[in-house]
Amino acid sequence: MTGQTAALVTGAASGIGKCVVERFAADDRHDVVACIDIDPAVTEVADELGAGVRAYECSVTDYDAVGAVVEQVEANAALQSVVNNAGTSRYAWIGDLDPEEWHEILDVNLTGQYNVAHHATPPMFEREEGYLVNVSSGAGQHGSASGGVHYSAAKAGVLGLTKGLAKQLAPHVRVNCVVPGLIDTPLTTDSGLWDEDAIAAFEDDLPLGRVGDPDEVARVIEFCCGPGAAYVTGSVLNVDGGGALS
Ligand code: NAD
Question: Taking Cα atoms as reference points, which of 86, 114, 107, 68 lies closest to residue 21?
């Protein structure tokens, strides 16, 4: 080990994950920022941000591939911050939700977070230092009209995963969960899950009256990965414009 430190961000090619990587690249807290995404665009993100930011094109559902990434990163730098952000959502009426679709959404949104936590957190625990942030969704707290029940179930699982890990990894690794509300990312705008009228109606009911910007979520994730969060673990932080109030 070289004395260098690293961050690992999944779902780093787009939206919230990309904003987290940009913040880590700028804040100088880590020497290496490892970016995992299934989308080849992750390489462009890393290239744009320059030295220290490295792309790994793989799926969080691939247990061995995730392990190999963690091993490569840890060979040169000690992981300090890990952000379990990769996710995908689709709508399916329960009667049409076949087992394949169910498992696919559970695999990406929940098992993917286990894969990363399993490989990445034991070294942090041994070094007695580290931060893990799991990204859930309001769908996991109160269901969702736009996402399927598989997405809600997976995101509720993330809350349980967070609480369990926070207890297991205490007092060395802080484990927290960030819960975005409706955020302006491709997941919302390009997925066909939300049309303009539905977004306008949603904003009308929301205390802060607007959809969130992905960097507004990223800055809370960044906070959870630093000394400001020294006494925060097992917490669920909603970043949702007041959506959790209704
Ligand atoms: P996004 O689509 O912009 O980004 C998600 C990224 O995850 C993409 O780059 C995608 O390629 C990647 N990804 C998908 N499957 C993957 C896999 N198997 N392995 C590795 N990478 C994979 O969406 P976003 O809004 O930035 O979503 C980030 C997180 O926030 C997700 O967990 C999502 O469920 C959660 N979230 C988003 C919203 C929202 O309104 N945008 C609301 C609640 C929760």
Answer: 86
Alpha carbon of 187 to ligand 1 centroid (Å): 6
Task: Kindly give, in sequence order, each residue whose CB lies less than 8 Å from that of residue 170, ignoring residues fewer than 6 positions away.
Answer: 233
Instruction: Determine the Cα–Cα distance for residues 232 and 173; give it in Å rounded to an integer.
Output: 10
For ligand 1, mutation pick of 10, 14, 43 (most atoms within 8 Å of CB): 14
Cα 52 to ligand 1 centre (Å): 23
What's the pLDDT at 135? 98
Closest residue (by CA) to atom 32 of ligand 1? 87
Residue 246 is predicted with a pLDDT of 75
Catalytic residue list contains 56? no
Indicate which residue's Cα is closest to atom 43 of ligand 1. 137
> How far is residue 133's CA from residue 110's CA, in Å, rounded to a whole number?
13
Expressed in angstroms and rounded, the spacing between residue 189 Cα and the centre of ligand 1 is 12
Q: In what order do the strands lie in the sheet with 130-135?
A: 53-57, 32-37, 4-10, 77-84, 130-135, 173-180, 236-239
Domains of the chain: 4-245 (3.40.50.720)
User: Which residues of the chain fall short of a pLDDT of 50?
Assistant: none
R_g of the chain, CA atoms, integer Å: 17
Rounded CA gap, 213 and 209, in Å?
A: 13
pLDDT of residue 1: 61
How far apart are alpha carbons 123 and 43 in whole angstroms? 26
* pLDDT digits 0-9 by tens, 4-44: 999 999 999 999 999 999 999 999 899 999 999 999 999 99
CA distance 133 to 166: 10
Residue with tokens 């930011």: 53
